[in-house]
Prior knowledge:
Number of helices: 10
Shape: globular
Strand content: 25-35%
Bound molecules: NADPH dihydro-nicotinamide-adenine-dinucleotide phosphate
Number of strands: 15
Oligomer: single chain
Radius of gyration: 20 Å
Largest sheet: 7 strands, mixed
Structural class: alpha/beta
Distance between the termini: 16 Å
Amino acid sequence: MFKGILIQKDAQGYRAQLQEMEEENLPEGEVLLEIAYSTINYKDALAITGFGPVVRRFPLVPGIDFSGTVLASKDPRYQEGDQVLLNGFGVGEHHWGGLAQRAQVQADWLLPLPKEFSPWQAMAIGTAGYTAMLSILALEKFGVTPEQGEIIVTGAGGGVGGIAVMILAHLGYRVVAASGRPALRDYLLELGAVEIMDRALLAAPGKPLGKERWAGAVDVVGGPVLANVCATTRYAGVVTACGLAGGMNWPATVAPFILRGVTLAGIDSVQAPTQLREEAWRRLARDLDVERLQGMSREISLSEAIPVAKALLEGSVRGRVVVNVNK
Ligand code: NDP
C-alpha cells in the first residue's frame, strides 16, 4: 500500500482526495519508483481542482513532476537505487503522476538526477524551472543578448516567472518583472528584477503597436498581456509564450511580426525531446542560484497539496511549492 492523491470523476462528480492505494493498481511501466518529492505547477492545480481539462483518464494520480529512487527496472539504463527525475510526458495527465509515494513509468520519460541538485531542489525547479530555462534557451536561439536591452517577464510572482527572473538576472539581463501583486515588490527585486511593472498596465486590450521597449520577453500569462508585450517589443525582438494564466485567447494583430520582425517562440515542456531537456537541465545546473531557489520555495505535505492547488489558482501562492510525499 502507498499514499497518494487520486482524482475521480463519476456519478458523485469530480473530486481529488488523499487515500491509500495498492501497488498492483499502478499503470504499466518499465520502471517502478519510490517518490521523494513532487510539486504543484499551474497544470497540477488545474488537474486537482478540475478547473481545466488536464486529466484525460480516471481514476488518475496527478503530479506532472517527481524526483525519486528506482525500486525495480526492466530497462538496462536504470538500476535499483538510481536517483531520477521526471517532467511531463503526459504523466499526471493520462498516466499516474508524482503526487503519491510510488509511480511506474516508461524509462524514456526519466532523466538521471543531475549531480548538482538534491531531489528536493530538482522539485523546487520542477516543470516550472525547466520551462523557464526552455524559454531562455529560445531567447538565445533567436539571438537575444543582455546588451540588446530590457527583458520583461510576466506572471513573475509565480513559478515559471520567478525562476525566469532569477536566471535572466544572473545572466546579466536587465529584467522588468510584471506582477499583479504589489506586495511582491521586495521579493521580485531580491530575485534580481530591476523594475516591477503593474500587471494592470498590460491587462487591457491595447493598440496593435506601442512604443518599442523590450529586447525580449518571457510570457507565462497569454491573453491581452501577451498581445501587449508583442506590441511593445522592439524591432527584431523575441517573445516566448508558454502559458495561459491570463487567458487562452489573445486580442492581437500581426503588426509586431510583419512590421517589426518580432519573433514569437512557442514553448512546450511536455513533449520536448530528451536532448533539449538534457540541455535545459545542464543550463539550470550552471545558471541557477540554488540558495535563491531555496528562498523562493517552500515545502508542504501531501495532505496540503489539495488546498495549496486551490490557493495557486486564486493567485495567492508565491514562487515554488515542493511536496514531500512522505510527510
Ligand atoms: P503559477 O500559478 O505559479 O504562476 C502564474 C502567475 O501568473 C501567477 O503567479 C500570477 O503572477 C500570474 N497570473 C495568474 N492569474 C493571472 C491572470 N488572470 N492574469 C494575469 N496574470 C495572472 O503558475 P506556473 O508558473 O506553474 O505556470 C505559469 C503558466 O505557464 C501557466 O499557464 C502554465 O500552464 C504554463 N506552463 C506551461 C508550460 C508549457 O510547457 N508550455 C510548462 C509550465 C507552465 P503575478 O501575481 O505575479 O501577476
